[in-house]
Structures
1.
Amino acid sequence: MEDHFEDALEMVEIGSGAQRALDDVRLSR
């Protein structure tokens, strides 16, 4: 259960990081 929670947390961090990168690309154009 704890391992799954940590994995989910990593996914959220990676997801928000990717979203931020996409926003940066849009703004730089």
2.
Amino acid sequence: MEKANSTFEEQWSQSLANAEVTPPEQVWVAIDGHLANEQALVYKKQADFYRWVAAACLFLITLGGAFFWMNDTSEIPSDLAKNEDRSVSRPSLEENAFSSSKALILEEEDKVELKELDQAIENVQPTLVNASAKRISTPVLTQTEPAFIPSTGTKQVKSLSRYAATHQTVFNALSAKSVELASAIEPWEAEHLFGVARTWETIAPSKVVSPLWAGVSFSTGSFDPGFGKSSGGDMAFASQEGISNDSFVRSQTANPVYASGQSVAGGLNLGKKFANRIVISSGLHYSAFNTGSSSSQLVSDQQDNTYALTNERNDSNLESALSDGNLRYEGQQVQLANEYQYLTIPIKAGYVLLDNKFNITLNTGLSSNILVDSKLVSESDAQNLNNDFSTSGSYESVYFNFLTSVEFGYIFKRHYQLLLEPNYNQALTEFTNANHTDKAKPKNLGIAIGFRYNF
């Protein structure tokens, strides 16, 4: 039977002789870190438990002391008071033992017992188990000179007796000495552990699941005002019979067509995460749009004031000059463009497609655009025009957009996040009103970059 067992062990040892695989150093670093974190959590829980226990004990002691202090009205029995008075006047046996300068005379039997006790203490060898395979310095208690309290009297102890006990009490004074002891398992400890890394149990880094965040963003892109050509006549030239230049071509009275321009925006963003993958966000942005330029004819009055034929009903200066009927055609053109300023409040609902250090969120929602200012600007600084270029009266004070975007984010240092967000906005309502000669729903396509802090 023993031979069969040894053969079985030899076969297994031969088959596993070359099966040792040394895992990478990073595995042990990760294991040590994980174990250290778990141990720290255990210590923290124990410390919290002891703190609460100490606080509870202190509270109970304080409460009990206060209770007995307030309710203890009983008188001390006369016999007990007398005995206490006598004990105060008589020094205790311990004080006599330690304050006396005379040498103590020990009986022969006591000396023999003391000698046996010393030998027993010297024969005791402490056993320590050291898991770290290192020699340690452990304080060991050793015996020094004993102190004895002699017995007094032979009477037995009774209740409220003024006499002390008949038994002899021996006090052994111990002192601490550092003794270097060897570990009992030191010869059997291995310097390295060998095995195969269990990669399927790798601890994934914790994800940022903060439900609230705040950040800033800046976006740029294209802006299409959505103006179309008007088929009807326009108000600005309804009273052109007063123009003295007969060579003026009426075909020039059509509404100008403005091409696409640029858009820029920037502002603050706030968001909150609901459930695991639903995000609701909003913010406050300042947006500026402009259109491409369009050609407008120039006319002048008798005072040589020059006007651009803008076809804007709110251009009071041009309307006043047209009502006089003494304008002349200059035969020149000027390039005009629109500029808009809005405060934008977006409300977006997002779905998190990828929730990791690199994350992707699909957003959709609505935005309200509040008009701040609108005007026409001339691209030629050489022409001094007398028009009233403020066009805010021709546009709605608020219009609404449908918006959609895809947000790409990268988290670093756990709380900080960089964002890249392509977006598309389409007006749901017209941003021009009845004072404008055209109806338009603008749209813009852009890309935003941002920075976010996750609380």
3.
Amino acid sequence: MKIDSLTPEQVLLTDEIANEKYVGLYAERKLSRLVIATESALLLGCFAVIVSLAQRPVVNRYVRIDEMSRAQAIQYSDLNYSPREGEVRTYLTDWANYRYTINRETISKKYPMNYYFLSTQLSNQYMADDNAVHLVSQVLANQIEQSDVEIDGVTITSMSQETVKGAVIARGTALVSITRIYSPRNSRQPRKEHWVLSVTYYLNPAQVSLAAQTFPQFETVNPLGLTITEFHENRLSVEPIDPTASPQTGAVSGVTVPAANARTVEVSR
């Protein structure tokens, strides 16, 4: 149909329809621009929040061991942090348990946790030594004598506190008395070996969050950042265990071991 043949009413109706279509298309484009602008603003806002969170200082979380040996999570600044001897004893005990318990049930999961308490140099050294002799594989294959450990006591011989680069670091030394038990079930020579470990350590809770970025388990295993930089192992005596005796009467008088059995592990920082 040609426009010339349209009546005035039809022409008016056609113009109204065209105007409505134009208005609809204009409103649609305007709404699209508004949606795009809103989404762009939201994306920029999210990006700004992400950048702000990334630049925010890391919040250190600490665990306080109370008089009843219960762990309590506490947040406080480094300047107010003051370690207690009970906390040091707790985590030195954990380290000794992880390191000196050698059995098939725990060697894969528990033993590696002892590295979390060692300085970087000492940890790398011991991991290399353990991997060189295939320690885990030999224990699982019953090719190495298995043993349990009892922690007889932890004595803090010295502890001081200093501030390094704004972080409070506690340094000290301790004696850890342990008994390594080679039961008749796991040893051809059942016995109890009494050892004393002379440990040099420091505590730096500020390093925990940083270490947890690489090793997430670090924060739960060693929340105070206890780091052993040097330790000496000294075997004091051996008590043979009678395989035929009951556990209550199995131990006999100790036999002193010569000083040649003492072993030193030392790392300079």
